[in-house]
Specification:
- With 283 residues, the protein is of the alpha/beta class.
- It has a six-stranded mixed β-sheet, with helices on both faces.
- A hairpin with an 8-residue loop joins strand 4 and strand 5.
- Helix 1 packs parallel to helix 4 and helix 4 runs antiparallel to helix 5.
- The longest helix has 17 residues.
- The radius of gyration is 21 Å and the shape is elongated.
- The relative contact order is 0.12.
Length: 283
């Protein structure tokens, strides 16, 4: 068996869910291995994402784990069978793995939510806005890596431009829209880009206005990617050492609640467009 050197986030998610199912069944890795004629080491490799498994073996394990959620098992089987090598693979070894994992995650997402307070979300960014952000990193990035990151970010927009775009809902604070990233012209172009995208059928942009009283949800900034079933949803948040991929049921419930709470105090799409249009005219 050839082991993977660097499992992707989706491969790790499959591994995690299989381990959770085994733990819920109260079985050790050795006991699970005996049920399907494998070794404990093989189970360990599967549950660490270093090795894959066939759909038949996955369904056999699920049956032994007494999982009766057929929709969930079908979704796991699809994960196990997936051999997609998307456009992001051209950046492997050139950019941090978390960049590629995010691209893969959102490419397969059934819907996408963004909440941001300080910056325009990546999928809405113009090339100049993204370049200005990456150029201000500390420590400073080499010019070549800045361009790689900008190119990668622009390619991520494919999920909004394809024949069947991913439904995308954005909640962005007014502060992020007022902060000038780059020149005045670049900031104006960025606001106009948001207005253009907000007209798309499957894109909804809503602004969290300054005028709110007692607003304390500033910890809710996130990317939320819908899975084929709710159990396979994922939240991505920026951490001190890179992106954090969150997938526990309890935490997903927290972030769903936070999203609904923030959405409830945001301006509706029409009023949001009016506000953004006014900000663009000021520049």
């Amino acid at each position: 068996m050839v082991l993977r050197r660097e499992p992707t986030a989706r491969q790790m998610r499959l591994a995690t869910e299989l381990r959770r199912l085994r733990d819920a069944a109260g079985l050790s890795a050795r006991e699970a291995a005996a049920l399907i004629g494998a070794s404990r080491v093989q189970i360990s490799h599967i549950e660490s994402g270093l090795a894959g498994l066939s759909e038949q073996r996955l369904r056999s394990l699920a049956a032994h784990y007494a999982c009766a959620d057929d929709e969930f098992i079908d979704a796991l089987a699809a994960l196990a069978a997936d051999r997609t090598r998307g456009w992001w693979e051209e950046y492997r070894g050139l950019l941090p793995t978390s960049f590629l994992d995010l691209s893969e995650l959102e490419y397969h997402a059934t819907f996408r939510w963004d909440v941001d307070f300080l910056h325009v979300p990546g999928l809405l960014q113009t090339e100049d806005y993204a370049r200005a952000l990456f150029s201000r990193r500390v420590p400073e990035l080499p010019a070549g890596e800045v361009e790689l990151r900008v190119g990668h970010r622009m390619q991520r927009r494919v999920i909004l431009e394809q024949a069947e775009p991913v439904p995308y809902e954005v909640l962005v604070h007014e502060a992020a829209l007022r902060i000038r990233v780059g020149s005045r012209a670049a900031s104006r172009a960025q606001l106009n880009r948001i207005l253009e995208l907000s007209e798309a059928d499957r894109v909804s942009v809503r602004v969290i206005p300054f005028e709110l009283d007692d607003f304390a949800d500033v910890t809710a900034a996130m990317v939320y990617a819908g899975g084929p079933v709710p159990k396979l949803d994922t939240v991505v948040r920026d951490g001190p050492h890179g992106a954090l991929f969150i997938d526990s049921a309890a935490q997903l419930d927290v972030f769903r609640t936070l999203f609904r709470r923030v959405a409830g105090v945001s301006l509706d799409p029409m009023r949001s467009r009016d506000l953004i249009h006014g900000l663009a005219k000021e520049l």
